[in-house]
Amino acid sequence: MAILNIRIIGDPVLRTVADPVTEFGPELAKLVADMTETMEDVDGAGLAAPQVGVSQRVFTYRIDGVEGHIINPVLDNSEDFQPDQVEGCLSIPGLGFPVRRFRSTRVTGVDMHGNPVTVEGEGMLARCFQHENDHLDGILYTDRLEGEDRKAALRSIRNANYDSVTERTTAKRAKTVGSSFGGAASGSSFGAGAAGANG
What we know:
Blueprint: H1 26-41, E1 46-48, E2 58-63, E3 66-77, E4 85-89, E5 92-99, E6 104-110, E7 116-122, H2 123-136, H3 147-159, H4 162-172
Antiparallel strand pairs: 1-2, 2-3, 3-6, 4-5, 6-7
């Protein structure tokens, strides 16, 4: 297994709709294993394949002892919403903002062997599924912000020297960057990234 580099905002792969997985075999198994190891290395709550430069519909997750991976996920969300929670993203280091997400999510897909998988989650787990699935559609959590939060996020992204951040992140590896769902200060992260990251 290997720790993979996490792509930072500005990388085109993060804005590309990922392709469905059609080939199941050793390469896919290695990708899932490497993504899981990378997610654990950065203490992430989830990680989507585009965040490690692979434009395929795969994500890993680990929330409150519930962990796994889903390939070619399809989400069935509740109609109601949960209270807004601060999200961060490993691909947008240092930022965290409250994001509106559906209260519960049922995810169907397959595992690395092509076997059917169904997982249901509420709260943080549902939030993680929605965050990671957005990555597969080229959507970042900052795209879901409105009003002053959106302005503040765009301003922060514009003012950040992400080329420098990328070099530092790669050099120091994510362990020193910290990150997580629930906000930059929480030490855990969705997806992949840096401070305050979800995946």
